């Protein structure tokens, strides 16, 4: 490919001797790992030299009588570089220009230009000045400067090539959704090599409130990846700026695109840019995160998409999420807190010199507009190491992120306005934390990177460490969760197995332990002489007075739309007496990020258990009970309350799960790797695996960058085991990862839509 050349402009009429400038785009892009990012601009990385060749009319510049100076300009800032003949290495802290031996020819000279390691990410202007008896200047063009994760001295340096291939160069990802008991994978095209995506990312920087309010300050701060990630996090949502996406979580999506229909970032960024920075409708957490991942990879900051299953939204900042249930197991909408079945954010890789040692590496950045951080809807960057270490005062937003992955769930059973049962679940939140594994579509489990085991954490969090808030300790009383205390503590373990916490100033001693029903109680322990006299039950008494009953709820096999949902309730009588129990089962529909709606299925039965008996109880919810209530992305919450008819003690167990849709098959003839600008055939099909006829069957196929518009196949009746099929001709105009998507719907259950995505790799 011929390198781009720019005609020069002189500031002196008739004095121009500079003919052409060759930006050596192909060689520079290969050297700087920026191939494919732009066909309009030279794109280079800071701290690494790039070549510019100047070609002159007539005689060459004379170094003995004239000075050759390059100037880079950014806003009202500029730096001049005297071009020198040298084979020395470049100064990492200043702009420099060198001519090496052999780079000087009869009418051309090749100059090696190097930006400081801590240069702003931006679009720069390049000027050439020839100072002599007749000075002249030329505006020769522009270039884009990005972060350099290949350079050891860059704050975003990442050591391994396999990591760089995955977290910078790859334009393909896998998102994890659904619930922790039934994880759904879907591919995503980050699309950073699509024409116009780089330009959209640069426009995001120019459209930010920070840039519009103070251009000079913004340009100075853009050298810092912490600042860049914070600005771009806010710009991906449109809640308080000219950001990319408008969020919506309920109601109709007819005036935009339903979040589940997006399959890549490029389409979204193109729409935003084409609309002159008006928000694209609509996004939800995985869309916000995936677009931010594209933007960060374009800017040169390693980034990956992360899913937290059972992510808490701590509305009041006490690191506890409360849930309320009726005495028959129906979830009630009485709490300000919420637990999303899954939540998606990104991790960005960078150093954190603002925080000190130990906090470099992966940082959580969450663009979904939930809470404001320093006055704007954004969250992070916050070190993953700070979350695991429970350093809740760490910048930025550590306490909120910690609650998302490790808050305790306090579940209360309410009857006639009174709490008649309570449990504390310390394992539900952050049950699984997944990202795409390097080099494969499988999940890499990051849970251990974010969380310690609860008992290990409670022992370690008493030890003070630099930058960490180790004083915030929850204390549970018999009347419910108490306030957090803000003071230093000493910590020991009592012989009774409780945790002894002494307030350093007041010397007040607390003992708390986990009771048999998994709730926490304050105790006054008689085994330690320093304690107050006993004012409550001993640990053994607490065990004896507990429900002495275990209850679990599990889902049998993967629930599939159109088939019965099978549940198993296990009840263990741990006492030496016969028990008569009432079993209350309740099923509700909910969206992944909201409280459940009213119940669609209930079951109430009496159960008798002999001493120490274990009862395994099977239940089934037929399709006719849920089909009219369930939509394609809805989640089912099933809860069981077991009540002892004699003692009135109640035990709650709950489970959330998604119902999978029947699969759509997509096959590209000749394989999933196709050549650019060549036609290929794809076959999309759906087989009715249900035992009933489906009316009004519609199979729809689309693919951004592969198909123009939507194509459909329709059948008025689709019999059991019958197939509906659509053949489409696809062709890509640009290389990169593209996505074919297909949906299947029918009038029997209009809300139950099957959806499938298929990756297509396009080569030049």
What would you say about this model in short?
The protein is 15% helix and 41% strand.
What does this structure look like?
The protein is mainly β and 764 residues long. The protein is 15% helix and 41% strand. The protein contains 14 helices and 50 strands. The protein has a six-stranded mixed beta sheet with strand order 1-2-4-9-8-7, with helices on one face. Strand 41 (635-644) and strand 42 form a beta hairpin. Helix 6 runs antiparallel to helix 8 and helix 7 crosses helix 8 (285-299). The longest helix is centred in the middle third of the chain and has 15 residues, at 285-299. The chain is elongated, with a radius of gyration of 31 Å. 42% of the residues are buried.
Q: What order do the helices and strands come in, and which of them pair?
A:
Blueprint: E1 5-7, E2 18-22, H1 25-31, E3 42-45, E4 50-56, E5 67-74, E6 77-82, E7 84-85, E8 96-99, E9 108-114, E10 122-131, E11 136-146, H2 161-169, E12 172-179, E13 182-189, H3 197-207, H4 209-213, H5 215-221, H6 225-236, E14 245-247, H7 265-274, E15 280-283, H8 285-299, E16 303-313, E17 320-326, E18 331-332, E19 338-350, E20 361-365, E21 372-373, E22 376-377, E23 382-383, H9 384-388, H10 398-406, E24 408-415, E25 418-425, E26 432-436, E27 443-445, H11 447-450, H12 454-460, E28 472-473, E29 476-477, E30 480-481, E31 485-486, E32 489-493, E33 499-503, E34 509-514, E35 520-523, H13 539-545, E36 549-556, E37 565-573, E38 579-590, E39 599-609, E40 614-621, H14 623-626, E41 635-644, E42 650-658, E43 664-668, E44 673-675, E45 680-687, E46 694-702, E47 711-718, E48 723-730, E49 736-745, E50 754-763
Parallel strand pairs: 3-11, 7-8, 14-15, 17-24, 44-50
Antiparallel strand pairs: 1-2, 2-4, 4-9, 5-6, 5-10, 8-9, 10-11, 12-13, 16-19, 16-26, 17-18, 19-20, 20-23, 21-22, 24-25, 26-27, 28-31, 29-30, 32-33, 33-34, 34-35, 36-37, 37-40, 38-39, 38-41, 41-42, 43-45, 45-48, 46-47, 46-49, 49-50
């Amino acid at each position: 490919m011929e390198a781009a050349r720019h005609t020069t402009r002189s500031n002196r009429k008739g004095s121009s001797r500079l003919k052409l400038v060759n930006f050596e785009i192909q060689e520079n892009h290969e050297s700087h790992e920026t191939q494919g990012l732009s066909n309009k601009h030279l794109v280079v990385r800071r701290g690494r030299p790039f070549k510019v060749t100047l070609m002159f009319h007539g005689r060459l510049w004379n170094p003995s009588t004239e000075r050759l100076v390059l100037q880079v300009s950014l806003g009202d800032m500029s730096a001049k570089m005297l071009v020198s003949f040298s084979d020395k290495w470049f100064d990492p802290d200043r702009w420099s220009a060198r001519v090496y031996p052999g780079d000087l020819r009869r009418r051309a000279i090749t100059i090696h230009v190097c930006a400081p390691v801590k240069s702003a990410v931006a679009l720069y202007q390049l000027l050439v000045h020839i100072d002599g008896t007749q000075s002249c200047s030329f505006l020769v063009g522009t270039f884009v400067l990005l972060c350099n994760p290949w350079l050891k001295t860059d704050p975003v340096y990442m050591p391994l090539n396999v990591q760089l291939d995955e977290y910078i160069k790859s334009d393909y990802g896998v998102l994890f959704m659904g619930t922790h008991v039934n994880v759904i994978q879907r591919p995503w095209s980050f699309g950073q090599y699509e024409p116009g995506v780089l330009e959209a990312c640069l426009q995001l920087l120019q459209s930010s409130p920070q840039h519009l309010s103070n251009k000079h300050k913004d340009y100075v701060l853009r050298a810092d990846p912490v600042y860049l990630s914070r600005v771009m996090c806010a710009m991906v949502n449109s809640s308080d700026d000219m950001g990319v996406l408008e969020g919506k979580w309920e109601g109709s999506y007819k005036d935009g695109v339903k979040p589940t229909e997006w399959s890549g970032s490029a389409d979204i960024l193109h729409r935003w840019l084409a609309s002159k920075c008006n928000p694209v409708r609509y996004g939800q957490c995985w869309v916000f995160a995936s677009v931010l991942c594209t933007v960060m990879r374009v800017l040169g900051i390693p980034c990956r998409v992360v899913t937290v299953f059972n992510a808490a939204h701590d509305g009041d900042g006490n690191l506890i999420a409360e849930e309320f249930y009726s005495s028959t197991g129906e979830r009630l909408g009485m709490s300000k807190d919420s637990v999303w079945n899954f939540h998606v954010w990104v991790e960005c890789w960078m150093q954190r010199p603002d925080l000190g040692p130990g906090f470099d590496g992966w940082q959580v950045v969450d663009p979904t507009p939930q809470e404001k951080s320093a006055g704007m809807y954004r969250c992070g960057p916050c070190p993953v190491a700070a979350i695991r270490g429970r350093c809740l005062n760490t910048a930025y937003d550590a306490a909120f992120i910690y609650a998302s992955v490790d808050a305790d769930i306090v579940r209360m059973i309410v009857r006639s306005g009174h709490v008649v049962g309570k449990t504390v679940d310390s394992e539900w939140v952050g049950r699984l934390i997944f990202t795409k594994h390097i080099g494969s579509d499988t999940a890499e489990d990051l849970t251990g990177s974010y969380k310690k085991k609860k008992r290990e954490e409670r022992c370690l969090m008493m030890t003070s460490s630099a930058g960490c808030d180790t004083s915030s300790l929850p204390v549970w009383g018999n009347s419910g969760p108490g306030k957090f205390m803000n003071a230093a503590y000493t910590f020991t373990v009592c012989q009774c197995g409780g945790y002894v916490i002494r307030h350093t100033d007041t010397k007040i001693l607390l003992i708390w332990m986990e009771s048999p029903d998994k709730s926490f109680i304050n105790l006054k322990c008689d085994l330690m002489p320093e304690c107050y006299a006993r004012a409550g039950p001993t640990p053994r008494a607490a065990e004896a007075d507990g429900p002495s009953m275990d209850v679990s709820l599990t889902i049998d096999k993967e629930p599939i739309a159109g088939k019965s949902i099978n549940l198993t309730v296990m009840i263990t009588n741990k006492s030496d007496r016969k028990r008569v129990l009432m079993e209350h089962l309740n099923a509700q529909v909910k969206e992944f990020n909201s409280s459940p709606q009213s119940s669609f299925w209930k079951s109430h039965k009496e159960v008798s258990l002999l001493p120490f008996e274990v009862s395994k109880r099977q239940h089934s919810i037929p399709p006719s009970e849920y089909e009219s209530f369930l939509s394609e992305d809805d989640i089912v919450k099933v809860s069981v309350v077991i009540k002892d008819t004699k003692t009135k003690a109640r035990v709650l167990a709950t489970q959330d799960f998604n119902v999978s849709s029947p699969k759509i098959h997509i096959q590209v003839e000749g394989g999933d790797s196709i050549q650019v600008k060549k036609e290929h055939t794809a076959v999309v099909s759906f087989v009715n695996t249900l035992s009933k006829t489906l009316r009004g069957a519609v199979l729809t196929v689309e693919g951004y960058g592969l198909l123009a518009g939507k194509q459909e196949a329709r059948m008025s009746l689709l019999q059991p085991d019958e197939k509906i099929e659509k053949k489409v001709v696809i062709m890509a105009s640009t290389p990169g990862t593209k996505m074919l998507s297909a949906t299947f719907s029918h009038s029997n259950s209009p809300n139950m839509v099957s959806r499938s995505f298929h990756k297509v790799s396009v080569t030049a």
